[in-house]
Design a protein that fits this description.
Blueprint lengths: L1 E4 L23 E7 L11 H14 L6 E4 L3 H14 L5 E7 L2 E4 L2 E4 L5 H6 L4 H4 L1 E2 H9 L5 E7 L31 E5 L16 H10 L6 H15 L7 E4 L22 E5 L6 E4 L5 H10 L5 H15 L10 E4 L21 E7 L11 H14 L3 E6 L3 H18 L2 E8 L1 E4 L2 E4 L12 H4 L1 E2 H11 L3 E8 L9 E2 L1
Parallel strand pairs: 2-3, 2-4, 4-8, 8-9, 11-20, 14-15, 14-16, 16-20
Antiparallel strand pairs: 1-12, 1-21, 5-6, 6-7, 9-10, 11-13, 17-18, 18-19
Helix pairs in contact: 1-6, 6-7, 8-9, 8-10, 11-13
Length: about 500
């Protein structure tokens, strides 16, 4: 028998807003992301990576299909900015992110396209014609009349003109960016203070973007406080060699990840969620099945209401594990205001007369370790559900793209059927910053700093099901929530 010790804290929802939300939250989010590094002179390694990772994170926090350009020349940048402006509209949140070379010249900030460097080295006065004025981007955004515009400039990583022109030359291009004009309803963030240069970094991301990615995904942080934390992190990492700076002129609060509410305190209407263990508890894997799923399978065979299934499973698991060093005490919560769901054979309810669709996932073969029973658990649960009249989608050993695709397709099917949705997952899990995540089989320890990009949020599963189906959704998670790389304890 294997025992997996979990440290389970508070389940939180980052995509389902259950509390009071700022008006800046309840709106469409639109972004343009550009990363230029493939310069013919003084190329940069990180901007393409920075832009790709920022775009992924923006999708995670609700920005719809960001426009992404990597190593863009001037025509591509101009076209992307125009398309970005066309997508912006009144009431939307607009975000522009740029990583790459930029300089200030004549009091203006110019973003350097790929392919322009050689000509600009010979004639820097051509900047206003062969580069992109950052103020122009802000003007395009402002012209949409939208409620909030955010500009993030991780630029001026080096002044490419400093060896060509002496500082004594009048109006020569200068390293560092100038402060841009303030505009109502805007936040402008710079990777470093006006007139100073920023570092490209030695890892995958620049010091600024690395911190930006980490802090953007944290809930309950208004953007100004988030940018302050980004600045603190950059200053620590660069030993005060780089000092980020921002200017804000917004009245309300904007959160990249909305304020969260505890799932155990309030669930979306029509949802039931069950966990194999309670806060600070343990979960065990037996030879044939996980301990929780062993008793779940027994109770699912019986004609009884779903809440009774969870109550009996909790009692059985708690009793079975009472002699172990740490007892396993399952937990569940229900937000059904009326009616219940019966697992076949008992009196009919309103939920039993509608379509029943289930997605069942079991992940065994992880990159870093192998579980014994997760796939067997999933196959056994799928078999029982099939016998109870569910249409079952069974998936095993899913990597991140396949997990996301399966959950999204499940949501689409639920929106068509509008009946009972049932989601079961057995495998590894991870609790980070108060939120539970399901672990795909391709997860690698190197991806941990960007966990929301490489793990699947439980909140995302709940949101996906609830947005598609308002009748009844049942979610059962037999997962680990410990440090997934700690030693497995054998009893």
């Amino acid at each position: 028998m294997m025992m997996r010790i979990y440290h389970w804290f508070i389940i939180s929802v980052s995509f389902v807003c259950l509390g009071l939300v700022s008006p800046l939250q309840a709106t469409e989010r639109i972004a343009l992301v550009i990363g230029n590094g493939d310069y013919e002179i003084k190329p940069l390694d990180n901007p393409p990576h920075d832009a790709e990772d920022v775009a992924k994170m923006l999708r995670q926090v609700g920005f719809q299909a960001p426009i992404v350009e990597i190593n863009a020349d001037q025509a591509t940048m101009d076209s992307a900015i125009a398309a970005f402006g066309e997508r912006l509209h009144k009431g939307a949140v607009g975000l522009f992110y740029y990583a790459g070379h930029a300089v200030q010249y004549g009091g203006e900030n110019y973003l350097i396209p790929v392919g322009a460097m050689k000509g600009l080295m010979d004639s820097p006065e051509q900047l206003k014609y062969k580069a992109v004025n950052a103020t122009y981007v802000l003007e395009v955004m402002e012209s949409a009349g939208n409620g909030l515009n955010i500009i993030i400039l991780d630029a001026c990583r080096d002044n490419p003109f400093k060896s060509k022109f002496s500082k004594r030359v009048v109006n020569s291009p200068r390293g560092g960016l100038a402060e841009m004009p303030k505009a109502n309803g805007s936040v402008i963030a710079y990777a470093t203070a006006p007139g100073e240069t920023a570092k490209d970094g030695s890892g995958r991301n620049s010091p600024y973007t690395k911190q930006f990615l980490q802090w953007m995904q944290k809930p309950n942080l208004p953007i100004e406080l988030m940018l302050k934390e980004v600045g603190k992190g950059v200053k620590r990492e660069t030993q005060e060699g780089q000092r980020p700076w921002y200017a804000s002129s917004i009245d309300g609060d904007f959160y990249f990840v909305e304020p969260i509410a505890k799932l155990e305190e309030k669930l979306p209407e029509g949802a039931i969620i069950a966990f194999a263990t309670s806060p600070n508890g343990v979960a065990m894997e037996l030879k044939e099945h996980g301990l929780y799923t062993k008793f779940l399978l027994q109770e699912m065979q019986k004609p009884q209401q779903i809440e009774e299934v969870f109550r009996k499973v909790s009692r059985a698991v708690t009793e079975y594990s009472k002699s172990f060093p740490k007892q396993q005490v399952p937990w569940y919560n229900s937000s059904l205001s009326s009616g219940s769901f019966c697992l076949g054979g008992c009196s009919k309810t309103s939920f039993n007369s509608v379509k029943q669709l289930a997605l069942v996932i079991g992940n065994n073969n992880y990159y870093y370790r192998r579980l014994e029973s997760a796939i067997r658990d999933a196959e056994s649960v799928a078999k029982v559900l099939d016998e109870k009249g569910f249409e079952v989608i069974l998936k095993t050993d899913l990597d991140l793209p396949k997990m996301n695709a399966a959950i999204q397709e499940f949501g689409k099917r639920l929106s068509i059927e509008n009946g009972v949705g049932f989601f079961y997952f057995s495998g590894d899990g991870k609790q980070i910053n108060g939120e539970d995540y399901l672990v795909p089989v391709d997860f690698d320890i190197e991806g941990l700093p960007y966990y929301s990009l490489v793990l699947v949020s439980v909140a995302y599963v709940v949101e996906n099901m609830q947005s598609a189906n308002r009748k009844l959704n049942i979610i059962i998670l037999d997962i680990c929530r410990d440090s997934i790389f700690s030693p497995v304890i054998t009893r």
